Amino acid sequence: MNKAKTLKRKLGNPKPFLECVLHSEETSELRTRFLSVAWDTSDTPNQASVNPNLKWKDINWKKVEKYVFKLQKLIYRASMSGEIRKMRKYQRLLKKSYYARLLAFRRVTQDNQGRKTAGVDGIKNLPPMQRLNLVDLLRSRYLKASPTRRVWIPKPGKDEKRPLGIPTMYDRALQALVKLGMEPEWEARFEPNSYGFRPGRSTQDAIGAIYASIHLKPKYVLDADISKCFDQINHDKLLGKIGKSPYRRLIKQWLKSGVFDNNQFLKSVEGTPQGGVISPLLANIALHGMEERLMEFVEKLPFRYPSGKIMGKRDRRNSLNLIRYESRLCHPTRRH
What we know:
Layout: H1 2-11, H2 15-21, H3 28-38, H4 61-80, H5 84-96, H6 98-111, H7 128-137, E1 148-154, E2 161-166, H8 169-187, H9 203-214, E3 219-225, H10 235-242, H11 248-256, E4 259-261, E5 264-266, H12 279-287, H13 290-299, H14 313-318, E6 323-325, E7 328-334
Parallel strand pairs: 1-4
Antiparallel strand pairs: 1-2, 3-7, 4-5, 6-7
Helix pairs in contact: 3-7, 4-5, 4-6, 4-8, 5-8, 6-7, 6-8
């Protein structure tokens, strides 16, 4: 009992905050089911849902990651070869996988830097026993998306502030699970010169791509930034790009869930919350196709060689490069 009281004192009680912001029928089930599991402070887990002999520290994470990565490779290969039905089958399999749910919860409760920031549910910093209980709750996926909690953080080097939307713990874990299935599908489709928010790519790779495009020939370089990239994404266009995905309904719920800013509810008309686990992937999907559109535009420009002869389509495409990192664009263009 002393341990339970200490735990509640450390985590704080989320109920007063929930009572002032969550009154709708959609969130009543979330309050009753999620809080009854997440804030169970008994020393033993729910016998019906979790193996009592299993402890969080005893999980073989190497085995878990290996199994999930194997499924992700199958999704990636099916997407590369255009086998859509097979890819959807593997995505549904990963969505139901117990190992994938374990990995998703570990990423939002342990690996994520924002794990100690609470959403409208007021839940953060879950101990290992409650994580196991919530992994089982994640299997249902019947709870509707909750509004995000808006937090204003200062921009580095500026006096301005930018909004950060913090989802609930349940939505964060479910978003991490969806991301495990969607990311390999889109990694097979993404353009080669996008480097932001992608696994295995970093700022150094973007710098290397810029250097490779300018070090042999003199070129003009245009540096640009897409203003309010996350806040102005068109929901209908984004859902149209996602297509008939098994995750489409969940993504639509997250996009339309709304936000709480100073205890005032605001509807979501456009954009994705910057604090969401899946938001960077959705931003990359929204910006996908920019490089190809730019190349189609370049093909129509009347570029000429120094001799005065009109340049061919292939040389016109090769005369311009687009390197994108997050919402930053760099255009090294050949001098004419």
